[in-house]
Here is the input.
Amino acid sequence: MGTSYYNTLDGGEVDVFIYSYSTNRHLEFNADIQSFSDNFAANVNSEATYGRIDAIKTYSGTTREISFSLKVESTTQDGNFFKDIKAMAARMYGQYTNTQGNTPYILKSPPMFAIKIDPILVGGTSVKDRSDKSISKLLPGFITSFGITYDVTKGTETSGGEKVPREITLNFSFSPLHDRMGGFKENNKSNTEGWPF
Here is the structure.
């Protein structure tokens, strides 16, 4: 898959881009990848019939679930990194609109994201956020789980005028909504070159 693919998983910090559709803003973490898991599951339904040893199998699609952990150290970040972590947690909730009626807040936009960790997690989506920054090769989907773990043994330090933990691990579970076609054509060529990376 190329040397750069393995270098991404071989230690050292990488840039992780996370774009929020509901806020039209992006977060960028410069972090060490602690773990990365990319799982593909074929959805196969079974129907047992009289007299058959094996059930009849029907295929209904393939799902993909991605999990990864990032270690963020305060000594390698700018002064706003802890605010970005808190912003990530806040964006796990949807965007609501105030109708000032009996039900004052109605969901306007779900917490949908697009992520890029080049080259192990990429897609075909490009965006320009409200700060006018263009980001390409994003993969859209839903972050189904986001966790923050503080290493209390490393203590704290002052960054950006506030006391923050020195070392934080961010855990993500991501369910992508693919923007490019997977699978194969009748001539056995991939529908998307280099799929799924």
